[in-house]
Amino acid sequence: MVDALAPVSPSERLLCGPGPTNVDPAALEAMQRPMLGHLDPELHDILLDLVAMLRRVYRAESGMVLPLQSTGTSGMEAGIANLVERGDTVIVGASGFFGKRIAEVARRSGADVVEVTAEWGRHVRNARLLAALDEHPHARLLAVVHGETSTGSEHPLAELGAEMRGSRTLLMADCVTTLGGVELDFDGWGIDFAYSCTQKCLGAPPGMSPIAVSDRALERRRRRRTPVPLSLDVELLRSYWVERPATYHHTAPILHIYALHEVLRQILIEGLEQRWARHAAAGRHFQVRALDAGFELLAEPEHQLAPLTAIRVPEGIDGKAVQQQLLADGLEIGGGLGPQAPAMWRVGLMGPNADTETADRVIGALIAAVEREDAPVPG
Ligand SMILES: Cc1ncc(COP(=O)(O)O)c(C=O)c1O
Questions:
Q1: Among 123, 197, 208, which residue has the most ligand 1 atoms within 8 Å of its CB, making it the best to mutate?
Q2: pLDDT at res. 4
Q3: What is the distance in A from the centroid of ligand 1 to the CA of 330?
Q4: What residues in the chain have per-residue pLDDT under 70?
């Protein structure tokens, strides 16, 4: 019988699925600090510090940068809600669950969506996206997923941004699984709207969605014919997060703000390039060991994402049973996402878990669990 008045006592887990990852202990510690009110000028200074650090992590000196009080999905929705109006054309590169989700969000906003698709595990070639742009030169927005967490594929975003220079179509990038873990240069690559989340390579708890918006995207937002939903309106959010004196917009999630502030500080102390290199080394180490053990990876090798590896479940193995075995030992990995996903395991090495020791632990446990599953039934 469950005691309804007992406090929650969750088990210890090593979170090596597609996210959330384990929280950086420094962020957990920051969340214990004294709670300020959302209209306290002391908090407003903290917000400005946070924005300044977030600019460095996104490499976004221009435009506007701030975290939404929401998850990655609302970051996606904020991009569409601010930049797209009913009847606009939106081109989406979709070769996995989250590309499909962008298309769905755009469709729900009344956009005419041109979906350019590829098989799961491959990325949609830039040439095909550019061909769609040639066919729809008045498209308002072109969107891709930088790190497709459902397949482990990394989109060549720098090259796409370079090809789109001079186009009037805005470039939106889903950076949920890349911000703070994979090279990203918002200004340098010509991105107009990027969104992320806190629970992956940043190593904070879920609940915030850092976004970056270019100057020309802000200009498009100002010239809209129709209003933006209030909670996602970047102009209104700016009046709380960046303009001083701050204007009330919503009651900010103070403790999550402390956590995000702390992980951004940790990233800049570690060094952004060093952090990307740490994620690359951990991911590569895991992938080499997985291939050596005879597993097949879903993504194309030259476009393999570092923080997330998707492994095809070998023929005759019950993938879910393997996940359950690992979870019973305190290790969480993911399975396939959505009905279209091939049978797979998804392993994330993100934030504080992006190191070769953790990679060794996960691959060792996975091999042992598969061997147990594969064992002939006694008798
Ligand atoms: C690439 C990508 N985009 C968007 C999302 C949605 O983020 P959230 O679950 O925080 O809403 C996720 C979540 O895993 C993701 O991996």
A1: 197
A2: 81
A3: 23
A4: 1-2, 375-379
